[in-house]
Amino acid sequence: MSAAGPEILLHTGSDEVAEALAARLMARLTEIQRDFRIPQLALTGGRIATRAYEHLGSEGPNSAVDWSRVELWWGDERFVPAEHPDRNAKQALDLLAKPLALNPDRIHQMPASDGSLDLDQAAEAYARELGDTVFDICLLGMGPDGHVASIFPEHPSSYEEGAVIAVRASPKPPPERLSLTLPVINRSYEVWFVVSGTDKAAAAKMALLGAGPVQVPAAGVSGVERTLWLMDKDAAAELPADLQQRGRI
To answer: Residue 62 contacts by C-beta under 8 Å, 6 or more apart in sequence?
Structure first.
C-alpha cells in the first residue's frame, strides 16, 4: 500500500458511495487544474461508477472543472464492438460526453473488436498511446473474487507483464478483454476504490488485510500518494472493528 496506508471512507449505502465519488472527483479535479495541470483520470466500469457518472453528467457542468481539459483513460475494457452496451467507455461517454462537452482529443478509449486490430495488437496500441502517462486518479471497482480492472485471481492475467495486456478466457464474460497491469495502476498518484454490497465484503477484508496479489489482485494495488476506499457498510461488514472505526459515515 501507499506510505500512508489505505484510507477507508464508509457510507450508508451504494447511492451514497456514488454521490461521494462524484463530489470528490469534481473537487479533486478542480484542485489539480488550479495547479495549472491537465488531470489524467482513469475511469472504471460497474454499477457504482455508472451512478457516479450520472451525477457528474448532471452536476458537472455547474462545477469549477474545465472538462475540456481533462484527459480520460480506462483501466480495462471488454473487447467487443465499439457500440456494444457492455463497453465501459460507451457506458461512461453516453452519460458524460455531451453534458460535459468533453474534448474528443482527450478521450483515450481502448480499441474495440470491430476495428482493424486483433486483441494482441489492441493491447500493444493502447500501451503505445498510454506511454509514460501517470494518472492523477485511477478509479477501480472490485469484484467479489477480488479482481480489479480485468486482472483475475489465479488467472494468466495475474502474471502477464507489460503495461496493457490481452486477457483471454476471462472468468467473467465476455471472455476477451484489455486491461492495464498492476504496475501501471500502482504508478498512479491516487487510486480510488469504489466498493459496495455484501458480496464484496470477504474480498475487501482480504485486500485490506494484505492477502497475496495473485490470490486477490486488489491486495496488490496502491497509489503513490493515496489509496482511498469509498465503501458502503455492507462491503465493510467483515473488516475488523479498528478498520471500520477509521472510516467515516
So the answer is: none
